[in-house]
Amino acid sequence: MAPTHEIAHLGHVELLTPEPERSLWFFTDILGMTENGRDGDSVYLRTYDDYEQYSLILTGHETSGLRRTALRTSSQENLDRLAKRAEQAGRGVARLPAAAGIGPSYLCTDPDGHEIQLYWETEWYQAPEELRPALKNQPQAFPGHGVGVRRLDHVNYLAAEVEPNGAFIRDVLGGAVSEQIMNDDGSIPAQWLHFTNKSYELVYTSDWTGSRGRLHHIAFATNAREDILRAADICLENGVFIETGPHKHAIQQTFFLYVYEPGGNRIELCNPLTRLILAPDWKTITWTQGERAKGQAWGLKTIESFHTHGTPPVAANT
Amino acid sequence: MAPTHEIAHLGHVELLTPEPERSLWFFTDILGMTENGRDGDSVYLRTYDDYEQYSLILTGHETSGLRRTALRTSSQENLDRLAKRAEQAGRGVARLPAAAGIGPSYLCTDPDGHEIQLYWETEWYQAPEELRPALKNQPQAFPGHGVGVRRLDHVNYLAAEVEPNGAFIRDVLGGAVSEQIMNDDGSIPAQWLHFTNKSYELVYTSDWTGSRGRLHHIAFATNAREDILRAADICLENGVFIETGPHKHAIQQTFFLYVYEPGGNRIELCNPLTRLILAPDWKTITWTQGERAKGQAWGLKTIESFHTHGTPPVAANT
Amino acid sequence: MAPTHEIAHLGHVELLTPEPERSLWFFTDILGMTENGRDGDSVYLRTYDDYEQYSLILTGHETSGLRRTALRTSSQENLDRLAKRAEQAGRGVARLPAAAGIGPSYLCTDPDGHEIQLYWETEWYQAPEELRPALKNQPQAFPGHGVGVRRLDHVNYLAAEVEPNGAFIRDVLGGAVSEQIMNDDGSIPAQWLHFTNKSYELVYTSDWTGSRGRLHHIAFATNAREDILRAADICLENGVFIETGPHKHAIQQTFFLYVYEPGGNRIELCNPLTRLILAPDWKTITWTQGERAKGQAWGLKTIESFHTHGTPPVAANT
Amino acid sequence: MAPTHEIAHLGHVELLTPEPERSLWFFTDILGMTENGRDGDSVYLRTYDDYEQYSLILTGHETSGLRRTALRTSSQENLDRLAKRAEQAGRGVARLPAAAGIGPSYLCTDPDGHEIQLYWETEWYQAPEELRPALKNQPQAFPGHGVGVRRLDHVNYLAAEVEPNGAFIRDVLGGAVSEQIMNDDGSIPAQWLHFTNKSYELVYTSDWTGSRGRLHHIAFATNAREDILRAADICLENGVFIETGPHKHAIQQTFFLYVYEPGGNRIELCNPLTRLILAPDWKTITWTQGERAKGQAWGLKTIESFHTHGTPPVAANT
Lengths: 318, 318, 318, 318
What we know:
Four copies of one chain form a homotetramer. Chain A has 318 residues and is an alpha/beta fold. Chain A has one domain (7-123, 149-308): 2,3-Dihydroxybiphenyl 1,2-Dioxygenase, domain 1 (Roll). Chain A is 18% helix and 34% strand. A nine-stranded mixed beta sheet of chain A has the order 14-15-16-13-9-12-11-10-17. Chains C and D meet through loops of C and loops of D. Chains A, B, C, D: Keywords: Repeat.
């Protein structure tokens, strides 16, 4: 089933951290993101290629975790249509008024309880003098410090059950499953969903703790694989915990590095090379349990914590 | 104006060459493409990431040049709709029966006379044993020889006048102008058009000779910028003429290398990093004559032949 | 203690394989080396940047393993001096007459029994027409296929005891220890030795099986880290076993990929970036057991087989 | 003729700038170097891989240009020997007492008048807490900002006549010519000289203005070619003038980018890949005028200013 294009792309996420200052240091000094406003306990952060105001809201909180994912629709009409479908599916929460940088939005939840906010109107970013890019087809100057991430690339949720959530993204939000894993017993421990040529923007992975609403990781894309190797050096020098990588995923073939930001949330730095899903009738790729057991593309075994670490930690997740 | 997604992507091109054997050597040995069938004077060639049967038809001919560009629509309904619009615009040529690897199609021409073929049905590629990939989300094994191009990326036409052609792609085929150049006198010497998240797939550049129907270049995408630097070494060692680059375009920011294949057609090897147009309401970027005069992104001056070399050569273009 | 420069560089090795045809396929098709002569069961192979005739003699044999390492001295006088020192140290074996591509040489063994051949005269390579490079400061055209390794970079021996062997390289051959590991009990499980600005050319690692004369790996250098990532894809597609990597060593900071060639010998593909030992009074870096336990630079744990796999296999090593 | 190894490596240079603050910004913010002390109008700067205290003294002055090049010898004995030879050649200037970070030294000049300082004793760098590296085989933490240059790589002098200067480096300092250009009339417009495995550390290029003692450029090495592409983006964004590149030199095959620091001195960012001169009997490569006319490796024509811009500017050079 082809995606409908009603969702244009992942817009931003709100990430919670019990270590707001150190987390902010991570996103600005290490990743090279730019602060673009504050509101209460929240700092708005942007990558250099965000045409919108921000792609990350970093909020000081008692726990780590993900509060919300915002998706931009491809028109007002599509926003209305999606809101209606979500409501009909019993997943609607509220219509929200315009907020920082975006217009009126619609809040719903996936079956696992992750908040998903849909919006259409957005305020295009105009760089102030000191951040003005040399090339006018880029919203902001390329940062000469830190990793220099280009964009928020995708969100990987943990879910008690994967399939109902994948079905929600597919049936209600118009996405499609580009790749998935199927165990020998027919269960689906992970699904990768896409809306456009990007081969995935939302991922659901089975939460072995049975918890609901948790985050596996959010990912930021870099320009090149070399940026990820350089990022590993930067993380090493700055005491940022590297969980696994750099390596290449078999699924989606993304080149990756996983680190934990100081608040405990897992962050992926990723490079998809130039891979795109161009076929409008892409057929879901299903990986078997045996194929999955081979590890990553070049043989790296999946690290144990990859199956257990999520945010917020289970004890705190009440 | 947002693209309609009626066109899914550039499918393939038919390229003419007066040096069929040497051109074939270039596309297979140098670029690392794979032969996938022959028909008369034509050889069908594919990149390793083509989900369809081929992306290049290389045809022996008395001249160089581009015979046809095939675009895949995103549904049969869209194919019918586009065919109707082309006919109404007076640009229709013929309905064509199913041919190698694709279903029934519709042939039209842009105002400059370049043939554009629209099709929906396509035969997905199943690699034979010796070309089977290690990872099942890839159509064919990554080639260990030559440049190892991933996909046919875009086509850059020369046109006597740019604007009518851009309007055709926009109004008839549902594309949108992502970037363009505007001279001080208001004329438009070049337009870059896109249909999806790819920031361009068709480009029109003013033909200073006033000829019609000519080709500036076709481009193949690589996985990384390093592949393009390595490609430059491979071309150097094998006597393939390098016209200009490697360098980074200011417009579209593509990292590029331009070479001439032995038949005389200009071929671009390009890497877009991970840049995508995600905004459904992208606003056309217009570069002024003055901005353009600065040369490429890092200051390389545009080489003279870039404005004069097209295929077929003017004398032969009758 | 500074190296004496009496040894100019690692010249070539003779590698044994019970699978000569498949091993040859690995070194030519996968690594991109060039055959340059045969003699009996041996094939002479060269990287594109070898100024000498070859850097690898691949010899069909009943087992895998390393028969010999040849080191070029920096003058005839130095060859004579080293031969004398080796003889005085009771490690001399024989004076050998001129052989393929090299002049008269002196054969000795390190205390663990690895054969080391010293030579001065060498025949500079003149590429035949079809391998002539485009740039005259390079011995042979850059290969457009396979990994395209630049040079034989280093040899890593297994030894029952590391220190006597390191002392031999130091005291007899004029090398120096650039880095080493020291266990908490004062024992030395590994030493990296160098002769010039290259930070290592010979390495001794403790053989946990207590065997003598075995090989841990030989390494070939590539131009860039990207070549190693591409190599991983090539190995994946061609069924070459990847043991570990790509990753960055903490010791020596080399970017690496370990694979097994079809004969069973471990081969490292490595990129030292542009690191050199420039200080003539470099002080040996000693890593503690605790530092070593942290794994590789970016946290990859050292894989179990890295401590156990050597060639020839122990059972065969009689 | 083989180099003698009496010179171990290029140690540091003193660069003059009429724009000390902006030049300092360039070397620290753009290149990522670290300040390590001040003295009067001079700032001492180091790359992250300098084992010595610094590799650049940046001195405010009425003009741009190079005041001095310091070369480290490989022993005290070699320092004495070289000093004696320089004195006998009539090129001696003075014995200098120990100064910042280095022991007693000997000052001489090449025939064109460039000051060359020879020293042996040096103070090894111990990083303060905040700059301590994660890996103990590296002097200082890898900088997460700017280009992150690894080392001062080479100095390229302009000289009224090339040959007498090359002869001085060869006969007095024990270097060797690794590559050179010879015009059809037998004159030598450029020579590249080396002392060790690095294929060049000092270069002489003919000064078309006939001036003496001027600088063509100093060069800093990066880890990878990708760092140079990233550097081009950083320079573009920060208004640093890019003169030419990135591209690959035919001579020495170095991947390069040339920029002007704000004081007007030309700075090369370079990556030699992993190329080394290993042969102790390397034969000088001589490029003909015709070969040179082909431009750089991949065909880039040498830019006009490359032959005319030197520092200090001619008018100021009195």
